[in-house]
């Protein structure tokens, strides 16, 4: 996502590891169009993920 959209998302911390995704949209970034941009980038990234064999 960083390469294609200049957006970084991370996983959870502590007890939420493996259960949540963190998207930094607080303060300066707390605007509807930036949230829409982040969701579009996430959708694009998920389309390009390979399916797990598990």
UniProtKB/TrEMBL annotation:
One of its GO terms (molecular function) is transaminase activity. Keywords: Aminotransferase, Pyruvate, Transferase. Gene3D superfamilies: Aspartate Aminotransferase, domain 1. InterPro entries: PyrdxlP-dep_Trfase, PyrdxlP-dep_Trfase_small. This is Serine-pyruvate aminotransferase.
């Amino acid at each position: 996502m960083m390469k294609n959209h200049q957006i970084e998302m991370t996983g959870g911390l502590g007890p939420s590891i493996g259960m949540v995704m963190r998207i930094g949209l607080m303060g300066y970034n707390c605007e509807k169009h930036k949230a829409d941009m982040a969701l579009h980038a996430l959708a694009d990234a998920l389309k390009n993920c390979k399916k797990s064999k598990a």
